[in-house]
Amino acid sequence: MTVTVSAPAKLNLTLDVLGVRADGYHEMKSVMQAVDLCDTVTLTDTPCGITLAITGSDLVPDERNTAYKAAAQFLRYIHREDRGVHITLHKRIPMQAGMAGGSADAAAVLVGMNALTGAELPLQTLCEIGALVGADVPFCVAGGAAVASGIGTTLQAVTPLVNGYIVAAKPAVSVSTAEAYRAIDSAVGLPTPDHDGMCAAMAAGDLCRVGALLCNVFENALALPAVSELLDEMRAFSPCGCRMTGSGSVAFALFAEEAAATRCAEVLRENYNEVYICRPIAGGAEVTI
User: Fold this and answer.
1) Angle between helices 101-117 and 66-77 (to 10 degrees)
2) Is 10 a catalytic residue?
3) Which of 93, 103, 184, 278 has a Cα at 20 to 30 A from 42?
4) Is residue 105 flagged as an active site residue?
């Protein structure tokens, strides 16, 4: 048996880091939104063992990959470590970009394994298993929009955006999560995102207000010249707002009209290799075949 699952990326519309917890993790709060830029994950029954293949990326297909870890955690949870699965990832989401590409793949594996094995675990249980793999995995399982808190695994669903067009682009620079948090720990004078205001603007479908409230403390703490330059290029097309997502380095611009988004993307593609037009979606990882 084979199942294919879409693995949507996410954007951080707001993102704040509140400090370091006693367990060494960082306390954070973020309004997250799923978008229709997706990896594709295909899972096939095998006699035993977990194997992995990856296209569209030079990632090493081994047990360090989040997709592999998700499959192992799922089989452990259902006490079927004797089962086997072959996983094929087709990558489209840029890496080291702040769009949760690895977490999206892990979420898709959990959803796919649930269908492949007939386990019929509820969504909340899949999120709990996902939290063992990575902080963004529960959101990528649930999708839509949510306020994420704690280390990112505590989710409160909110009304997702249903309108607008998003241009996302990655400059040549990449950012490791460890590097981003080191910058946060030493930063001063960071802005304070208005999470409640963002949720209200999303519920009202007010793209101008959503754009005005976009805020990410990592953008300020890292102060990457390549990201600043990219944001300036995006602003030339008068978006509702633009900001870096996650710990970077992808920047995105929100437009009310498709034509404006298309013009922006066309011009950016003259200088950037990874430019995408995507839309907000109300779901998460989903079996497609």
Assistant:
1) 30
2) yes
3) 278
4) no
